[in-house]
Give the backbone structure.
Amino acid sequence: MRFPFRPGNGGGSGGGSAGGLGWVAGAAAVRQSVETILDTEPGERIMRPTFGCGLRRHLMAPNTPATRTAIAAEIAEALTAWEPRIRVTEVAVTPGEEPALVWIDIAYVHLLDLSPANLVYPFYLR
């Protein structure tokens, strides 16, 4: 299912002018799942209390190499645990243009067809 919820686009995917919700599949579904893992704090989901990444624990942390290394390690661990359709090849966390901004660059391989992909995710420490 497409998240956030939006009307579907027809064509057998549910929704469209007939109503219903849109669906994602393939690489788009994997990317959406990766973003969901990054956006979810452990403890938010009652039935899966360990699901998520825990990025918010780093709010108000200094933008130092130690903080960026910890963020990268937590992301790699969470994606390995919660997204079995990919193999993470690299997580790089680099300082942004603003003092509180870090850029999270996740490189991964889709295990279904071995195609490479990446996601660049901005995260503000404050």
Residues 7 and 84 are 28 Å apart (CA to CA). Residues 27-124 form a domain with the Nuclear Transport Factor 2; Chain: A, fold (CATH 3.10.450.40).
